[in-house]
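Annex B. Sample input.
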Amino acid sequence: MRIHLTSIFVDDQATALEFYTEVLGFVKKHDVPVGGQDRWLTVVSAEEPGGTELLLEPAGHPAVKPYRDALVEDGIPLAQFTVDDVHAEYGRMSALGVRFTQEPLEMGPVTTAVFDDTCGNLIQISTQPE
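Annex B, continued. Sample output.
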């Protein structure tokens, strides 16, 4: 068993696509209209184009807003992405205007930072011990 697809709810798919590709560096994999203005819109790591897809899913379901609001209020990231160097990504992304809610924090062999994805979510980046 392996993970092929996971999703993240976003307020606006066009804004999310721009942020996730132009700021985070993911690449668009699928963009298929599914009725109305919604799309089956996925991105993947530029380093692993055949890897796990992230669905930028419209946040229209009534349960999404209170769920995400509670996570943000408590400072809990909705998702985590691995990077080679949290400090370097923090610097790069900060220079692009990304708002961090947690600066790089070293916890033993792991370093993390948390940012606002501009789409209603907090996202954590981390390095993983080898």
